[in-house]
Amino acid sequence: MPNSPEGFPSESMPPPVQESVPAPEAQAQPEVSPAPAPVPPEKFQEVKEQAQRQDNEELSRAYNELDNAFSVNREGQPAEQTPIQQESPNAQKDKDYAAHRRQMEAEADQRQKERDERRGQMEIEADQRQRQREENRQRWANASPEERQKIREGEGAQKKAKEQEEKRLQQEKHDKWVADRKKEDEERTRKEKEKWDAHFKKLDEERKKKEAERQVEESKKKQEAKLKKQAEERKRQEEQKKAETDRLAKEKAEKEERRKRKEESDKRWEETMRGVRKSSEEQKRKLDETIKNFDRTMEEIKKQREKEEKEKQEAERMKREEENRRRRENEQRQNRPETRQNNVDYYKVLGVSKNATRKEIDSAYRKMAKEFHPDRNPGKEKEAAKKFHKIQAAYDFLTKT
Predict the structure, then answer these.
(1) Per-residue DSSP letters for 67-85?
(2) Model's pTM, two decimal places?
């Protein structure tokens, strides 16, 4: 005969009703998984190993995150360091890292201790339940049918109350665990925030210090550049002054040289004039003949230029007369009645004016011939052919006339 819960037979006992205990209202808490069910004794070792693996994974992940954080923190170092800092530039950060690691190890040990205590408590509760089942089986074996009926009824109510109490305790334990974890997370978050705030504050101070040093360096460079520019300006002014002095001295020397040359030239001129005055009458006559020849030559050149100018004016006059004659002939040709045949204005056919040149007529003819050629107007060959012959006749007439 199968056994009922808690070791009692289940002859006609209905299955126990599973009643859900309403959970308290959530007050801005994150969603969490329900509390784990009691672990059977035969699975304690397996659960223990699994919890240790989870702890090791969490601890390894936390160490990796901490290593990454401190590797980022080691990037910027102050420009000037003491000899001790040069020997161990990251001593304070290594101390912080070691302290944080010890803190995490202590927290892991505390969580392991709490799990061991919970497992011990679970083992005690399992032993108590086992003894209770043995006692219930013994009492069931010695009881009469009426007593068994009463036992069933009492056991059902007792089991139901017990289940409700267990659910309530589990819910309270779970709520407490959630609150503790939330508090731990808030505390951890606060500490991390304080740590990172201090780190960023330090970085900001270092950045400000570097910025101040950079500004001082730039100010020094600007001052040096200004002094260098002033020295170059003074040097340039001195060179200009020296060049001006040299120029004035050179001009003075050149002026003195010109004065001397002028005196020598005047002296030679006086000597020449005295020689000219002493020249014979023959020389004067030759000079007069030379002057007369020069005047005669100039007169001939003047006459030649006047003749060329008259010939040029005559050529221009004849050219203008020829152009006027051609224009009159063109106008007469355009006004002749022969330019219209069978009451058709060939100028209008080609789309040109009556005073159009041969080049304009040729261009208009080629353009219209391409446009109205029968091969270029499929489907309209007859109309295109008539228009094409008309254009050809107009071109032949105008070019022949």
Answers:
(1) HHHHHHHTS---SS--HHH
(2) 0.24
What distance in Å separates the CA atoms of residue 309 and residue 315, rounded to the nearest whole number?
10
- In this structure, the number of other CB atoms found within 10 A of the CB of residue 391 comes to 22
| Cα gap 88→160, rounded to integer Å | 67
Residues 5/16, Cβ–Cβ less than 8 Å: yes
User: Is residue 176 included in any domain, yes or no?
Assistant: yes
Residues facing 340 on adjacent strands: 345
Q: Indicate whether 130 belongs to any domain.
A: yes
Q: Which domain holds residue 357?
A: 346-400
Is 38:169 a contact under the CB 8 Å cutoff?
no
**pLDDT digits 0-9 by tens, 215-251:** 999 999 999 999 999 999 999 999 999 999 999 999 9
Residue 270 CB coordination number (10 Å): 10
Strands (E), 191-327: none
Q: Indicate the length of the chain as a whole number.
A: 401
What is the distance between the alpha carbons of residues 362 and 399, in angstroms, rounded to a whole number? 9
Place of tokens 């094409």: 388
Structural domain contains residue 270: no
* Residues in contact with 52: Cβ distance below 8 Å, sequence separation at least 6, in sequence order: 112
The candidate with the shortest Cα–Cα distance to 111, out of 52, 155, 170, is 52
